[in-house]
Write a structure and sequence with these properties.
This protein is an all-beta fold and 472 residues long. 3% of the residues lie in helices and 39% in strands.
Length: 472
Amino acid sequence: MRETPRRKRPPVRRAVLAALGTVAVVVAVAALPAGATAPPTPAGWSQVFLDDFNGPAGSGVNTTDWQYTTGTSYPGGPAAFGTGEIETMTADPANVSLDGAGNLRITPRRDAAGNWTSGRVETRRSDFQPAAGGKLRAEARIQMPNVTGPAAKGYWPAFWMLGAPYRGNWWNWPGIGELDILENVQGMNNVWATMHCGTTPGGPCNETSGIGGQRVCPGTSCQGGFHTYAVEWDRSTAVEEMRFYVDGIGFHTVRASQVDSATWTNATNHGYFLILNVAMGGGFPDAFGGGPDAGTEPGHPMVVDYVSVLRSAGGTPTTPPPTTPPPSTTTPPAGNRDAYTAIQAESYDGQAGLARETTSDTGGGQNLSAIGNGDWALYRGVDFGSTAARQFYGRVASGAAGGVGGLVEVRLDSRTSAPIGSFSVAHTGGWQSWRTVPANISGVTGTHDVYLTFTSGQSADYVNVNWFDFGH
């Protein structure tokens, strides 16, 4: 979820977002009852780590495999773990313990003085990494804290991985890499997955937001039942990639081709360790209204059935994905727009809350500016053709103050339809400091009216947009 000098999760996301991107099943995930053992190791994979959290109720984690992180920071590291969270992490069984039914419970608590405590555990091993030409899959079966609405204000559960070089340094984030397999805030029925890398603020990975995706939990809500959350790190493909899943459904992919080779190498040329925790407050909850406050209910645990790490040595190379097309210097007429040629943002057919200004970006012309929460732009007649588009690219810049950010969302045919995809934006270095940000979208064919909508937890303007387009 977070770590380090920073951040977190985008000063951004908000509203429950619909499913994004590439649906794929890699390792079959069967429905399992609470407290079930991990599924059998699939053919072609080997088990390199497993904890089913079996043990007496009230007992702690197996300290041969796990270590507790306590206090409010790593020794010598950034305060509040670099995220602004307000709890104190402890090894108290009241905060971290087995339930006697095959589960680990990490439970935030508040004392009579209003002070919050919670739990955070990390694997002792930090060598989780696929071999050259192979794959690594880290997964956990988790029920998020079963609390929603105002009572969930400030809750921030997470299952994530950090690059091994972070241990003992504490100040080299995000260059050493972070893989957020599951994050959630405010009891929303939504899972976020993100890769962090590069430099901050801004940089090739759009920090402090990172390269992220999200979707609602399939079937039962994230809070109402167990779901399996996983990342698959694949070095068997022609272009290395990180794929994120919930219940076997792929909803976010980050490819090495999205950043420069040095950034990718620095984030992936070493092992990782795993982390489970529930924070209270911090940058990510702040983006959705803040908390915790007097109405937040303590005592709702994140329940973890198992954590598993698998490795596979095989894999068949695939064709690299297409690169993002360069911006076009011409504007297609309304009603006849090519989804795969850059659509100039100022060429809208309708809008609310937006302004135009001269841009210093490559190609010149104008960009949209003064964009904040609730603003939108309409582009009629965008032709996606017969082969489904699964990527969205936006050329954006932001000079917003620290902690201010939001989402750029794509909707089809109606401003009130569910987003087919989105990405988060925070400060990029200035209102004319441009970068192209990718996002997965659910597959789209045919011709549609496209709405860009803008959602933020703050009232301040947070983004400029120069152009956008789509890819397969």
